[in-house]
Amino acid sequence: MERSFPMKTLVLTASTILATALAGRSELIWNEDFTNTTSWAVVSDPDGGSSIASDGVRAALYVNGTNSLAAFAPIGGLKPFVPFDQGNKTAYTMGLTVQDLTWSTSYDISLDQFDASHNYLDTLWQVFPFGSTTTFAGNTNINLGAYSFNANCAYLMPKIMVHTGDGGQTVRFDNLSFDVQAIPEAGSAALWIAGALVCLLHPMARKLTWK
User: Fold this and answer.
1) What is the distance between the alpha carbons of residues 25 and 14, in angstroms, rounded to a whole number?
2) Per CATH, which fold does 26-181 belong to?
3) Nearest-5° Cα angle at 83, 87 to 136
4) In whole angstroms, what is the distance from residue 97 CA to residue 33 CA?
5) Predicted confidence (pLDDT) per residue in 21-35, tens digit
6) Chain centre distance of CA 126
7) What span, in angstroms and rounded, lies between the C-alpha atoms of 108 and 132?
8) Across-strand partners of 140?
9) DSSP labels, 4-62
10) Distance between CA 20 and CA 31 in Å, rounded?
11) Cβ-contact 128, 142 below 8 angstroms
12) Of 125, 94, 84, nearest in space to 108 by CA
């Protein structure tokens, strides 16, 4: 019995192959593994005595004061800025891994915004968690598509805010990263489609025979 494939089936199958091949492809554009914290600093410490240090594996963000807040951020020039295209903001994801935190601690992550010349514009506060603080420990990813950015924003820089109840509290970070979903060039997409159609049309041209 001879059977040929309807064109609609071929097109749908080729589209599925293309979508599967391109889905989930992302590019890591910024990463901090906290094995070294010389490119980070305490950028706000009203009560004094706070610090950031690495044991070679992860960073300990320590806040000294009681009922206090300290902010930690990369040092511009020592740590590259995070390139950002807000016209494609839904393609950007911030990932983080927190090892643990002491009992009277919470934290949040904000994003400092910069223009194309790396001039500071403003801060997008409490990106994670949205509008609050957290005691979350583990791994999570935050898509940036839901947030409103400065119209001139071309670069980002994360800022970790650590809040304490009692003094002498610590949050330990394993990793902080940003990635962007890859958008294939038109030529690449066309090649994927052409390749998929060739693979599908070849057996059709031979008119497969099923016995």
Assistant:
1) 18
2) Jelly Rolls (2.60.120)
3) 95
4) 9
5) 445 589 999 999 999
6) 15
7) 7
8) 96
9) ---HHHHHHHHHHHHHHHHTT-EEEEEEE--S--TTEEEEE-TTS--EEEE-SS-EEEE
10) 26
11) yes
12) 125
Helix-helix angle 7-22:186-205, to 10 degrees: 140
Q: What is the predicted pLDDT for the residue at 31? A: 98
194: enclosing H helix or E strand: helix 186-205
Q: CA–CA separation, 66 vs 205, rounded Å?
A: 77
For residue range 86-141, what is the model confidence (pLDDT) as tens digits?
Answer: 999 999 999 999 999 999 999 999 999 999 999 999 999 999 999 999 999 999 99
- Is the predicted pLDDT of residue 60 greater than 60, yes or no? yes
What count of residues does the chain have? 211
Name the pTM for this structure. 0.78
- Sketch the domain layout of the chain as residue ranges: 1-25+182-211, 26-181
Amino acid in position 118? H
Check residue 44 and give its pLDDT.
96
Rounded Cα gap, residues 71 and 74, in angstroms: 11
Backbone angles phi, psi at 174, to 5 degrees: -95, -40
pLDDT given at position 183 = 66
**Nearest residue to 129 (alpha-carbon basis) of 155, 151, 147:** 147
Which among 128, 182, 126, 121 is positioned nearest to 155, based on CA atoms? 121
Which range among 65-69, 182-186, 204-208 shows the weakest confidence by mean pLDDT?
204-208
For residue 182, what pLDDT band results from cuts at 50, 70 and 90?
confident
